[in-house]
Structure formats: structure tokens, C-alpha cells
Amino acid sequence: MTRCFAIGLDYGTNSVRAIIVDVADGREVSAAVWNYPHGDAGIVLDARQPDLARQHPGDYLDGAAAVVTEALALAGKDKTFSASRVIGIGVDTTGSTPMPIDGHGNALTADAGLANDPDAMAWLWKDHTGHAEAAEITQLAGRFKPEYLAKCGGRYSSEWFWAKLLRAVRVAPKVLAKAHTWVEIADWIPAQLAGITEAGKIKRGICAAGHKAMFHTAWGGYPDADFLQKLHPELARIRQSLPDKCFNVADRAGGLSPEWAKKLGLPGGLPIAVGAFDAHLGAVGAGIADGTLVKIMGTSTCDIMVSPMDRAMTDIPGLCGIVPESVVPKYLGLEAGQSAVGDIFNWFVSKIQPGGKEAGSHEALTTAAGKLKPGESGLLALDWYNGNRTVLVDQRLTGLMLGMTLHTSPGEIYRALIEATAMGARAIMERFEEYGVNVKRVINCGGISARNPLAMQIYADIMNRPLAVSRTLQTCALGSAIAGAVVAGRSAGGYDGFQQAIDAMTGVQEKVYQPDKASAGVYETLYRLYKQLHDAFGIAGNKQDMSNVMKDLLSLRDEVRGAHS
């Protein structure tokens, strides 16, 4: 049988990855990674503005050339592979990561005067400079367009499209003067690969538009110009450049241009799927289904579920939107998440550096943390080191570590940080179920889930659910490759729909992390204390007494230590 292959491009926070997979079963034939060269680990920062995080658009295009050509060269070692049998390409990116472009669809950094201007670059998802603007959008929508807020969890976030644009038009006049429109990189990269040279012909994906830019068919697409005019006239102008129709990942963004085909060594006209966010295509690569919660664990974490579009669904406060077909066709896509998870662990190891490089490595700290029992440290943390994405939707919240004494060790802190992220994960799961979205199965994917058994066991104990792990490390890239196989269609050797492709190309590891009954019992006590802190610091007007928390942590610590002395 002639084998067919698909390429998945996965644009992460620090690097871009390409994988080539066998369409028949999802087998990974090759993979390549390219680190973005600009800024600090690919992120352009400004010490004067801690909330600023940008990326250079040139890194996306240079990265595509680098990883695809390398992956093709590596795949050539497989006798079943031929570049001529690649049938489709899919693309996923971070988001919301919008950028200004000119009328031809070019990044403004191509202009010599803006080449090194962070405001002309892509505004990375973790850029929170628009926090005041997000609050302003929330307030205005609450007065005039409450339906806008209802579809995005009740509060607009500084991580999202319009907050970043509103900030930009207020602080970046040079960019404002040259920007024809703004586009998510999830839409821009496929358009670039397809050689689209008119900004108005770029197909906008429903994933980015629906979850981050308040697009909904109920009000004709993006927010209306009158509402945006109240925020700033420039936003109303940009609205006129945006389409009234969006597309899902089963649609074609275009065909691979002759220029890119020659550069990459692939057939010209190769179908490219409409782009989507990494988490949504990661859910596809993990095997998303009705009742399945997919947790994509990386620098941050996204939690994705789907529900049939013909099933009644109420709006859920705190979610990053409930969007028709944002994950797969014919299903509502439900997105939640945490603004930092892996970033928290990396902060502790890289910035705090407890005990030096060796004693303070992830491996050493994981070993030390693994020797502790739940509750033994006496510590409790809040996981808001980069704000709270769900369920509070507040990027002005910060991290907290409670219970430290003169005896507290780095391993204890490290474990408390893992526990905090797991408790944040449980809060999200409970929000889904509180509004009738039953979680029947949990699948984790990403580097943390594959490489850190201790973290997975802690998550299983705190969430008190069995946790499966995706069988591939490249879940997001696999999801993109699946989109490439679907957009190619059965006649080309791909699939006519996502369900067939998911069934054939995805799977989970044999090991499933089961909650330990004793540990889960201790964590019930800790989680109640976590929720007490969560609500006291995160919900305005909450005036509950917290004088018990420190003492309860000490009592639990003493009980646990006495139990195995």
C-alpha cells in the first residue's frame, strides 16, 4: 500500500516544531525543532515593562523553512517516505498572539523604521500590557453588550485580541500609521505559506476569532463598529478590515505557494488547513471526544472539552469562550486554562536557583519533592504567578506561598508549586461540571505529563480522577498534521472527517495514573484551604476570615509527620 504523510507545524512560546506523520496510523516519521533567535528564548522583553512579551515575525517564517526542511531530510531515512506523498499541512500557534500587517499581508517589521520596534512585532499571548484596556472592555461591554461577555466567560482578558489592539493604538503611533489591519499568527502563517498577498484574503480561523476576539454568528461576527468606536476610533477602522465569516480547521487556508514549495522541497499547491491555537489542535492530537477533558500542559496549560452543537449549553462564567467548531466541526469548543504551569517550575529553577544549578535542577527538586507525603511540608501556594486565566480571568493576580518557616526546604517549595497547579486544574474541572459538562475522562499531554510521573500522580490525587497520558510528546503538532490529513481529503489519501482521523491517528499510553485513596483524602483538606485563599484573594468583596489557614496547615503537617514517625 502506498503510504501518505502529513506535516504538522507547532509554533510554541520558545520554538517551532515540525513533525511528519504517517496518515494511516499517526506514526511519527521525523521531527525537527528550531529555537527562535530573537529576544530571551524567543521572547522580546522590556525590563521597564514586566508585562511586555513580543515575538519577531521573521522567526516564524525562518523557523518554518528550518524545521520543515530538516524534518524532510530526516524522514528521507525512512524507506516508506517520499516528499511527493505528503498530502497536507496543518499549523497551530500560541494565542492570542496578534500582529499588525500592511495591506499586502506583510509584517510591519519588514519596514526598516519598525524592524526592531516591539510594538510592530507579534504581541505574544503572555503580553499583559493591556490589562487596563481589558478591564475597560469588560466595563463597556457590561453596559452596552453583555452578550459579548456572556460568550467569553463574563470578563475580557489582557491575553486577548482587542485588549492588545486597544493598548497598541494608544501607545504605538508609528505602528498605528502603517497598520492596515491586525491578524492572529494562527491565520497569518498559513496565509504566508500559501503566498496570499492581500490582507483581505487571509482566512480567519474561528478558533482565534471566537475565543479571543468576541466573534460570534449571533451578532454577525466580530463586535460591531459602534461598540468599538466607543473604545477608540482606530478599533472601528480595524473592524472594517475584518471579515464577517470565519473558518474551521477542516477548511483550506490555501495551497502551498510555488515559492514555498521550492524552498521546502514539497509539491506546489499542497493543501494547508486553516490555523488554530496549539491547545485546540493538541486536543485533537490527544483524541478529544465528548466527555473528555484534554489538558495541554506546557509553559501554561489549556483545558479543552467539546460538546455536540445540538446539545443545549449554558454560558459558563470564567471560561475562555464556548465557540462553535473551534476544535472540530459540529462540536462546540470549550476552552479554559492556567496562565502559568511549566513557567512556574522554570521560574523557581532558573530565577530563584535554590541550592545552585545541581541541587536546584528540575530532576533534583523532583526527587526531593517525591520523598514528601501530601501535607508534610506545611505549605500551600496559589498558582497565579502569571495571573489567573480561569476561572477568575484576572491577570493582575499574583502568586503566593503560605506556611514557610525557617525549616522550609527547596524540595518542599517545589512540591507545593506542583500541588498549586494541580489545585488550579481541579478548580477548572469543577467549573465545567458545575455547569453540566461532565468530565468522564482526563487525558494529559505535553512534556510535563510525559516526563514527570510525580507531577502526574499529584494531579491524579488532587483531582481525584484517573489520568491518561497521550502516547506522543508532540500532541499539538500531531493535531496539526491530522488537520492537514483532513483538509487533503480521502481522495488524496487522507480523511473525510476528524472522527475517522482521530480514531486512526491518536492514542494514549498504557499507564494510567490512578488516585491514591490516602493521598486524595489529605488533599481534600488542602484543597478546601486552597479554595479559601482562592476566593479571598481572587473574588472582590469576599471577606471571609482566613486566620485559620496557617494554623490548619501546621496541624496537618504535624499530623502527617506523626503518622509515619
Give an account of the 3D structure.
The structure is a single chain. This protein has 565 residues and is of the alpha+beta class. It has 21 helices and 19 strands. It has helices at 57-75, 131-144, 146-150, 161-171, 173-178, 185-193, 206-212, 225-231, 233-240, 258-264, 278-286, 342-352, 356-359, 362-370, 410-434, 447-451, 453-463, 475-488, 498-505, 517-538, 549-563, and strands at 5-11, 15-22, 28-35, 54-55, 86-93, 98-101, 122-123, 181-184, 252-255, 271-273, 276-277, 292-297, 301-308, 322-324, 331-338, 380-382, 400-402, 441-445, 467-469. Strands 14-15-13-12-18-19 form a six-stranded mixed beta sheet, with helices on both faces. The protein has a five-stranded mixed beta sheet with strand order 3-2-1-5-11. Strands 4-7 form a two-stranded antiparallel sheet. A hairpin with a 3-residue loop joins strand 12 (292-297) and strand 13. Helix 20 (517-538) runs antiparallel to helix 21 (549-563). The longest helix is centred in the C-terminal third of the chain and has 25 residues, at 410-434. The chain is globular.
Oligomer: single chain
Mean pLDDT, all residues:
95
Beta-strand content: 15-25%
Helix and strand composition category = alpha+beta
Cα radius of gyration in angstroms: 23 Å
Helix count equals 21
Number of E strands: 19
CA-to-CA gap between the ends?
Answer: 64 Å
How would you sum up the major sheet?
6 strands, mixed
Main sheet: strand order: 14-15-13-12-18-19
Q: What form results from the Cα inertia axes?
A: globular
- Work out the helicity level: 40-55%
Low-confidence sequence ranges: none
